[in-house]
Amino acid sequence: MRLGIPRALMYFRFFPTWLTFFRELDVDVWVSPKTTKGLLEQGLSRALDDVCLPIKLGFGHVIELCGQCDAIFLPRLICVERDAYLCPKFTGFTDMIRASIPELPDLIDPIVNEKSWRHKNDQALIRAGRMLGKGKRRALKALEKAQENQIAFERDMRSTGDPIATIDAWEAHLLGRKKEIASFPQKLDSTHTIAVLGHSYTIYDEYISMGLLKKLSQSGVRTVRPDSIDRPSLEKFLSTLDQKPFWTSGKEAVGSSLYYLSKKKADGFIYVVSFECGPDSMSREVVDYQAGLYEIPMLSLVLDEHTAEAGVVTRLQAFLDMLRR
Amino acid sequence: MKITFPHMEDLSIVLKAGLDRLGVECVVPPPHSKKTLDLGVRYSPELACLPFKLNLGNLIQGLDQGADVVIAPCDDGPCRLGYYGTVHTGILQKLGYDFELVLLWQRKPTEWVRVFRRLKPGVSIEQLLSSFRFGYRKLRILDEAKKRALETRPLEEGRGLTDKFLNDVRLEVERASTFHALKRIKRELPERFDAIPLKKRNGEVRVGIVGEIYVVLEPFVNFHLERKLGEMGVHVERRLWLSDSVKDALNLQPFSKYSKRRAIARSKKYMKVNVGAECNVSIGECMHFAKEGVAGAVHLMPFTCSPEAIARTVFQKLTMDLSFPILSVVLDEHTAEAGLQTRLEAFVDLLRRKAKDEEGKSGGRRP
Predict the structure, then answer these.
(1) Which residues of chain B lie closer than 8 angstroms to A50, CB-CB?
(2) B313–A47: do the CB atoms touch at under 8 Å?
(3) Does A279 map to a domain?
(4) How many other C-beta atoms can be found within 10 angstroms of the C-beta atom of residue B83?
């Protein structure tokens, strides 16, 4: 039995939990390869043009897995925290896939909804284990380990200087390819710090973000991201707003921007948005407003399948030149 | 203190009636126009949806007329509508408007009482209830009239007669200031619509309208879709009404005759979970229409609306499974009326031909 996990969407956030859990249960886990042009085109051929780039890419990764696996893990993510939803597209992703890919193998599709007592994250994973024929006791044990790893991963992500390398290192470790997890300390000699705001699945996917983080670090800029801040201080800054955003991604972007603004820890913002992203169309406006109050410059990069790398590079250079003036 | 609020179909009539009865002064923004849309588009984030842009246009026009309090609906997700008020406020403050924002939390009626007590200190619960009932009754009558208009429009002898009646009713309802007057309008309603001379029924096609509620309800946005279809001789079916939506917003849904829940339950075959907004409702309604023998459906969605994009993806499979044609129309500020008209005509032609083919196959007229 081989279980496929698409390297797309919430994978970038929860892969330590998912990989540890399934490997502890002795499931043969198969993760789709890193995004390539071919993968994206595969997705584009099946997805409608009304959805955003990451979802189209998600289609591509799932199609890639179709011939190679006996089952695909596609949880229906509604809420991953008590007071915020994920974008509706995550909730509907599994059903969109079901409707548009006929050759689909079995789906392991537990509902994750932290607002409901029956569908908490833990229960969802136990249910996934049961769908794979594994008992509850073993699942609970695996879950413990998975949570440990998730916490350690998030701690690593907070302090890392190269998040993509950290993700790769963790992945190699969890898939049993490497024993040790390499650490990537932050460079302290850079003069400027830029907060890169955006969803983990766009900024950590080197293909669709066009290597944004790498380009920034090559030009000697230190980058911080929403996941460089711990949850409690994020919540603390969010509570200063009249109405908090009710999407996980929105909360992270707005909360971290407030943090960096009021602590004066960032010299500029780069907001990476996918075209047609619903939640970001609202939260970007809030961040823009706040950044305006503190007079911090913000570059917003809108990505879709037609975005050209040269255009991104030019804008990035202009933005960096402006900061260094 | 003058209150203003965004439009949504005839919600302004209701809100104005209710607020007048409470004794709170309000400014009704001018009806939707090209100018409203231009204002909204100019100051909105480009990726925001059409309802957001129009609402912003309404608020700007309302504030320009001297309002200083804005009422905005508010929700805790996952639809963007729940966050409109806060983002609008940021944009309007940047434009230099000075006003107070009042959030009306959906599905929390106790909060509404608190809000209206703040707008009008010392108001009793009875007064509040009576003004709400007064507004709501107006809404019910308007929806009733619109339902009747759906029946008569495809069959009317003289074109535009139904809409003339509808307009008269709307004006009368708007002017009515007592429960008594409303009762009289309601009593006369059937007679008035019965007086419209009708052609004989001749197996006209039935088309359902589904989609995101704002664009389904707002004729300015969907270019009077109902009227367009009606004038083509198509019998229109729709299940989304503003009065049900208001009940929903007040958590009174169990008391309304039509409940969204039934449509959501019906959509289980394609959607295992409820995505929110009208996604599952659209799917459930289409399945229901297909079963009832409705020929096809027009699906309306604002550009970038996530839940409806999911529905649209699922429709691909639903159309195949049930052989039920669905025309998806994506609406934004660039949508042109002529384009929509052409697509509708082609769609209706297709449905007519399909009905004819089926008739031929079954070897005679269907009852």
Answers:
(1) 301, 304, 308-309, 312-313, 330
(2) yes
(3) yes
(4) 27
**Chain B partners of A279 at a C-beta cutoff of 8 Å?**
80
Assess whether B187 and B211 both reside in one domain: no
Tell me the chain A residues in contact with residue B48 when contact means C-beta distances shorter than 8 Å: 281-282, 285
Is residue A183 included in any domain, yes or no? no
**Residue B271, domain extent:** 204-367
Q: pTM of the full predicted structure?
A: 0.91
- Give the model confidence (pLDDT) of B294-323 as tens digits: 999 999 999 988 899 999 999 999 999 999
Query: Do B151 and B112 lie in a common domain?
Result: no
Assess whether A157 and A203 both reside in one domain. Answer: no
Residue A198 sits in the same domain as residue A285: yes
Asked if A48's CB is within 8 angstroms of B312's CB, the reply is: yes
Residues B94 and B148 in one domain: no
Q: Which residues are paired to B104 by β-bridges?
A: B73
* Cα distance between residue B248 and residue B258, in whole Å: 11
Query: How many alpha carbons fall within 13 Å on the CB side of residue B324?
Result: 25
- How many domains in chain B? 3
The ipTM value here is 0.90
CA nearest to A288 within chain B: B90
A109 in any annotated domain: yes
CB count in 10 Å sphere of residue A42: 20
Q: B128 lies in a domain?
A: no
Burial class (CB in 10 A: 0-12, 13-18, 19+), B197: exposed
- Asked whether residue B19 falls in the same domain as residue B150, the answer is no
Q: What are phi and psi of A252, to 5 degrees?
A: -65, -45
Domain of residue A260: give its range: 192-324
DSSP state of B155: G
**B4: distance to nearest CA of chain A, Å?**
20
B286 vs A contacts (CB less than 8 Å): none
Q: Mapping DSSP to helix (H, G, I), strand (E, B) and coil, where does residue A221 land?
A: strand
- CA–CA dist B327, B344 (Å, integer): 8
- Tell how far CA B160 is from the center of its chain: 21
pLDDT tens-digit series, residues B202-235:
778 899 999 999 999 999 999 999 999 998 889 9
